[in-house]
Fold S-adenosylmethionine-dependent nucleotide dehydratase RSAD2.
Amino acid sequence: MQFSVIESPMLMMQFCISTLCNILASVFSKICYWTPGLRTSSTSSIPQIDGEVNQSKNATTPTSVNYHFTRKCNYKCGFCFHTAKTSFVLPLDEAQRGLKLLKEAGMEKINFSGGEPFLHEKGDFLGKLVQYCKQDLQLPSVSIVSNGSMIKEKWFQKYGDDLDILAISCDSFDEETNQLIGRTQGKKSHVDNLHKIRNWCQQYKVAFKINSVINTFNVDEDMTENILQLNPVRWKVFQCLLIDGENAGEEALREAERFVIEEQVFQEFLERHSGVPCLVPESNEKMRNSYLILDEYMRFLDCREGRKDPSKSILDVGVKEAISFSGFDEKMFLVRGGKYVWSKADMKLEW
């Protein structure tokens, strides 16, 4: 039996609705199959994007995050791989919102860096982030990496209770070498300032750490005596790393090629300092993909291709989706000792 549209308008309406539902169901299934973070109820296959396995099934936990909330710096270190390409800094409430999202996703340790983190609003912005993470989010560990030039004792008096670790970058104990590297400002002594901050850390019960980048200008230096005298909880020793667009390439603000050393030369430096108990070495292989790095827009940075490719901001898409594009090597994070006793309450230090 045949029906015309005029003779059976109800039947035609039902047919149209049925067809539309089928079309929508087909489109939705394709979206679920190809969109990162979404999948159908079937687990027989895992979708791939650009040849990479979708990571939604085993989502990465942001246990330890490095938040470079500013790129501005008062030093001009020639090998710097997070340069002042913008002057943008998130408003405090937005930064706190992002930090809360990270805590809810499993973050246990936050490290604030730059640029120079004490430069923005002369340290108060940083201090408020430190307080928020320790008092409101109750994170086990809150740390900072700084060149030390902008730190005042009054900052420790106001915010020191909420800071677990302060890492000061020091690449040489020779002032002329620091001048060649660019880790200096005017006639101030970087080494003298380092000792002053070490004393403040002890006075205000903040664990003291030193970071050094080994390069062509300091690779022959023996720092053993100075490091043992300062007695940091950790001495992180990095191999100079090239990042396209930051310290290498046409669009870079630095030219770090002249600072780069070979792996064998780096190993010789490590062997010379093997008697330093707090030494924590990190070659380029260990370092490149084993850090979760957030930029000033709270985007994870993927360094797998030798450059910093940003994800979307966690403020826009959430932590789970953004972190799937971070290129983070969680296994290497553990291999290099990324998880350690990082709360000063657990360090049992003798102040």
